[in-house]
Amino acid sequence: MHISLRAGERLYVNGAVLRADRKVSLELLNDVTFLLESHVLHAEQTTTPLRQLYFIVQMMLIEPAKAAEARRMFDQIHAGLLSSFENEAVLGGLGRVRDLVSAGRVFEALKAIRSLFPMEDAILAGGQRAWPAAADDKQEASPWK
Q1: 20 inside domain
Q2: CB within 8 A of 132, min separation 6: which ones?
């Protein structure tokens, strides 16, 4: 696999962070887990439930030593999302993400989560409710569905 990096761009490979000091093209000759800097979500960007899930999954790639801990967090957050969203497309996407993570295809799981961001954004912008508010519930229902 060939990867081209611009000067100053980072590449996360098997838990190591590499930074190019000039434009460079790399060829990865064996099977490695990697993440391009442009696909890294920073903690301050985890402003929605799916972005939080993405952040947890990316930690499996960036910090392999903490992958088991990240997987436990993934399982908890994923279960919560399944019970919060009603949108069938999002639920189907979450099922696919679970299957990819379970199969060890974490990079593909990240791509699948990213593909759900526009739907989540539309749901949040539309103010759709995640579940009906109870008659005696004075709090606003979650808009994540």
Answers
A1: yes
A2: 141
